[in-house]
UniProtKB/TrEMBL annotation:
Gene Ontology cellular component annotations, sorted alphabetically: ribonucleoprotein complex; ribosome
InterPro entries assigned to the protein according to its UniProt record, in alphabetical order: Ribosomal_Su5_D2-typ_SF (IPR020568), Ribosomal_uS5_C (IPR005324), Ribsml_uS5_D2-typ_fold_subgr (IPR014721)
MF (Gene Ontology): structural constituent of ribosome
Organism: Euroglyphus maynei (Mayne's house dust mite)
Residue ranges occupied by any Small ribosomal subunit protein uS5 C-terminal domain in the UniProt entry: 37-102
Keywords of this entry: Ribonucleoprotein, Ribosomal protein
One GO BP annotation of this record: translation
Entries under Gene3D superfamilies matching the protein: 3.30.230.10
Family of the protein in this entry: Belongs to the universal ribosomal protein uS5 family.
A Pfam short name: Ribosomal_S5_C
Protein name per its UniProtKB record: Small ribosomal subunit protein uS5
């Protein structure tokens, strides 16, 4: 019943992975800050873990996090996690938030111009 939902989520996650992470030959696992996803009564919090820890999670978020490319992560969940649809979607929304932050290579390049009093001083 929930398997088609999980596959749709995984397909969407794999499409939204940044190209920089897959094109680099020697890339490290994806790093992120603490994020939270909520769906219905279920709240899932993803907490970064030290390298080598692995994914410490329930089976459903563990599969989604593995397919999203996250290697080391703690998870914390609240609410009625027995509803697998909400649990999977809350995990997906938390994973989606990890990709919404701009890394320094995606920052816009800005050129600074001199202020009028700086130009008058020369």
């Amino acid at each position: 019943k929930y398997i088609p939902l999980a596959f749709c989520i995984v397909i969407y996650i794999t499409l939204t992975i940044k190209k920089d992470h897959t094109s680099n030959k020697f890339f490290l696992p994806l790093k992120f800050i603490q994020v939270t996803g909520k769906c219905g009564s279920v709240t899932v919090r993803l907490i970064p873990a030290p390298r080598g820890t692995g994914i410490v999670s329930a089976p459903v978020p563990k599969k989604l996090l593995t397919m999203a490319g996250i290697k080391d992560c703690y998870t914390s969940s609240r609410g009625s996690t027995c509803t697998m649809g909400n649990f999977a979607k809350a995990t997906y929304l938390a994973i989606q938030k990890t990709y919404s932050y701009l890394t320094p290579d995606l920052w816009p390049v800005s050129t600074l111009t001199k202020l009028p009093f700086q130009e008058a001083a020369h």
